[in-house]
Amino acid sequence: EAFLAAFQERIDAEQKIEPNDPMPEGYRKTLIRQISQHAHSEIIGMQPEGNWISRAPSLRRKAALMAKVQDEGGHGLYLYSAAETLGISREEMYDQLLSGAAKYSSIFNYPALTWADIGAIGWLVDGAAIMNQIALCRCSYGPYARAMIRICKEESFHQRQGYEILITLCNGSDEQKEMAQDALNRFWWPSLMMFGPSEGQSVHSQQSMLWKIKRFSNDDLRDKFINATVPQAEFLGLKVPDLELKWNEEKQGYDHGEIDWDEFWRVVKGDGPCNRERMRTRRRVEAEGAWVREAAHAYAQKRADRQAAARVAAE
Amino acid sequence: EAFLAAFQERIDAEQKIEPNDPMPEGYRKTLIRQISQHAHSEIIGMQPEGNWISRAPSLRRKAALMAKVQDEGGHGLYLYSAAETLGISREEMYDQLLSGAAKYSSIFNYPALTWADIGAIGWLVDGAAIMNQIALCRCSYGPYARAMIRICKEESFHQRQGYEILITLCNGSDEQKEMAQDALNRFWWPSLMMFGPSEGQSVHSQQSMLWKIKRFSNDDLRDKFINATVPQAEFLGLKVPDLELKWNEEKQGYDHGEIDWDEFWRVVKGDGPCNRERMRTRRRVEAEGAWVREAAHAYAQKRADRQAAARVAAE
Amino acid sequence: MAKDNTLFTYLLRLADDHLILSQRLGEWTGRAPTLEEDLALTNIALDLIGQARSLYSYAGAVEGQGRDEDQLAFTRPERDYLNALIVEQPNGDFAHTIVRQFFIAAFMVPFWREMEKSDDEQLAAIAAKASKEVAYHLRHTAEWVVRLGDGTEESHQRMVEALEGLIIYTGELFENDAIAKAAIAGGYGVDTEALRDEWRQTVVQVLGEATLELPNAGYMQKGGRDGVHTEHLGHILSELQYMQRAYPGLTW
Amino acid sequence: MAKDNTLFTYLLRLADDHLILSQRLGEWTGRAPTLEEDLALTNIALDLIGQARSLYSYAGAVEGQGRDEDQLAFTRPERDYLNALIVEQPNGDFAHTIVRQFFIAAFMVPFWREMEKSDDEQLAAIAAKASKEVAYHLRHTAEWVVRLGDGTEESHQRMVEALEGLIIYTGELFENDAIAKAAIAGGYGVDTEALRDEWRQTVVQVLGEATLELPNAGYMQKGGRDGVHTEHLGHILSELQYMQRAYPGLTW
């Protein structure tokens, strides 16, 4: 009890918690779940965009897309490392992903069907991610907060890049504009769902707030995102696919239509358009790479043995 | 000795030899080698054309190409059956193909790079094959001769189809004409090689002639092919890539330039552009289909067992 | 005009189903587990492409803008393809290909049978021809379902995986959306909802013989009829369209 | 003019090598055996595409007909691509990808080093940048060659197969044909024949450490420099060119 109170005091004083600091088991578990889920999202998120590397329409865009997908892999790496500071191994987290025990952001269960989707993913999906992540830069757990700072910088770059793809399309031919509008139509609602359902009086969420793992409610972050994004859509000359969307002078923000939470839960539970495909791909990659990892391990072992033998011989 | 003489008498009297007839071991072996090689050529020959099914430029051409490749599979089937009448199983022949012990026509080790190649393969490769096969329709071994009659009909159809592809290209845009000329440039010499080297006094070849397995020399068939094909090239407005090609009024046929027999032997021995790829594909197909064949076999076995058991129970 | 638009879309959906499925099957040509099966799969692919050609030609005539079968088949953007999602799913192993074809054939048999009664004479004529063809597709694939289901342990397991992987794409075949309803109301379309029980019966009966079970479907994926596909279609199109895209407007 | 034509072709060959190889490596992005290797392979692919861009841009300037890097990269017919055959070979398993990249890197290291001395300032500048990059490619792939060769029995066997499959495509890299000779005579090209021994030394040394042997090559395949490719290139191009072909002349 005294420990919990002291811990809360540190949190309240905005002190960062570091790996070797004592922490409540619930705090550790919540963080492991959240950080590993975030890492998994980066890894699975490589798939929809990776799907367009071979078909990117110009060399510049191809290079940028490759670099972006690579950055996502890099973010996965930092985040797995951050989670490892809490006493879980990357392998264990990976197993949880492959077995379906761990989740990843359900946005990546939507397909990237056209080149405009690559723009929309950057603009909307990375945009929504950044809203969440900016808040996390001030998370009470030091390694996570620091990973977030680095990731946020790169994500902002990706978001601008995605928006710039759409600017190009919207300045282009009719087909290109149509492609851009179609991408917005398909990615708008799933992007709003990325913030998660309204939390109401969820105990879980309140505890996260108290521990300063989470600093804003889902609805607040979603509203912020909408308020930032609607003018960007207008600038592009695109129509946000929400008939009920309108400016509310009083709250100085937008009111929006009802989100289809049935769809959200369906996709979370595994019945989105690409859930099975994403997991099948990930499992196949794991299986096909097994011999390589075994070989690397065997070689490292042999090498260590040889060095040990050489040391013995030298003595 | 008396048997050999009697056999030769039957041959000379143009009697067909049938599966159950007595025949010299050399006759049997020569036929097995030739027929199975011919069957293998049909099977491997499905690859270069099969490579264009997914990209055929119109629905009509796609359907025709699929049907053509299917016919080749069908020819493979007849020919394996014809060879089986000589006392060898399809599996055994297949093993010889996969192990590299048996050969197939080396023309199929050249790649089909453009759509025009599909035309050139039909026109030249099937054209050359027909020259050989028409002669084989009168082969002394009955089942082979009969298979050839059926195959020749379909091959002629394929040849016309191929030529028609090239007519369309040659009546088309400059790029299409260029594509057609390029295909002729690449397939002309390998097609001439299909008839095999000049035989000189080869004992092997003379014996085949005597047994009426073979009825014309390689050079005669090649000349016939050239004489038939050059005017067709002229009709297309294409240039045969042989600077030494010219009409010889005296022999009422064309003289042609030197064939690169080094290339021929190199490709026969395994160093053509696609030899390894063709065998790799064939081996992969065999390996990937193994479980299917096993399952079919297991099911047939179970079914037979059940029927036997039912009969026993009924008695 | 409205009728024509609906009919055009209705035909395009059917034509795209046939084209994309035949493109998939064509990937097997020269690569099937046995030579006999190579010929059989190519036969089915040829039937499908033949049906696609009739449907595209008719669609082009209905549209009345001078687009021929090839322009419709090869030069539309991905989002304008209206095939059901099941036909674009990868061939996978032979079990997947057989299950996909079996599911579809078990649907197409009653579909074309009902279509033979269509008020639209051309559709009825296409249906009469197709009916005979799909009867063979169903028989052939059903035989393989039984053989593989009741074959070895491995083949059985592969069939279980194929059934689980593909079942979620079967629901879309039976949905009567606005276009389908208009086509039914117009007297030329088939009420696919009404075919569901028959399909289920056919499938369950064959699976039973194969010692297999129809998995519980759960949520059925859809979107193809509105041009919202899986990521596979784009890759199919990059090959399918290559020549027409690289050399627009030429005759081949 | 004649000089420019030769230089243009010379640049195009190099540019196509880099583009096609980066396209192949890009197939690994998100699919490599480890996360770290995913980043490493993508790094190499990014270096290659960067080199391709410089080379195409320069080629376009030399040609002087207003073609930019994308028009050169995306809108030529298959027979006009001049890359060596080795870069278009399929990724195969990771062993094949590593061997392919190792063979090429062991060639590119001395190639770019010599190119730094080119009379052509732009080529020399491209070479200076590329030299640093390929040094890493060689180091990284050599490490894998050793790890896989001296890893498990399976990895060793896979390496043996990869070496045998790819060795026949290495000869083409060193051939000085008429274009190459003209480029050498012009003072801007590299005499690749002269790099053969160094390449062999590098390769044999690393393979030795990996308990592997360089297989006997026999006949070396060639044709890429004249646009006569393997059947793989056409399929690469159908994806690579898809957008530019489907939507010609647009800005992306």
Automatic annotation (TrEMBL), chains C, D:
<dbReference type="InterPro" id="IPR007814">
    <property type="entry name" value="PaaA_PaaC"/>
</dbReference>
<keyword id="KW-0560">Oxidoreductase</keyword>
<dbReference type="InterPro" id="IPR052703">
    <property type="entry name" value="Aromatic_CoA_ox/epox"/>
</dbReference>
<dbReference type="InterPro" id="IPR009078">
    <property type="entry name" value="Ferritin-like_SF"/>
</dbReference>
<dbReference type="Pfam" id="PF05138">
    <property type="entry name" value="PaaA_PaaC"/>
</dbReference>
<dbReference type="GO" id="GO:0097266">
    <property type="term" value="F:phenylacetyl-CoA 1,2-epoxidase activity"/>
</dbReference>
<dbReference type="InterPro" id="IPR012347">
    <property type="entry name" value="Ferritin-like"/>
</dbReference>
<protein>
    <submittedName>
        <fullName>Phenylacetate-CoA oxygenase subunit PaaC</fullName>
        <ecNumber>1.14.13.149</ecNumber>
    </submittedName>
</protein>
<dbReference type="InterPro" id="IPR011882">
    <property type="entry name" value="PaaC"/>
</dbReference>
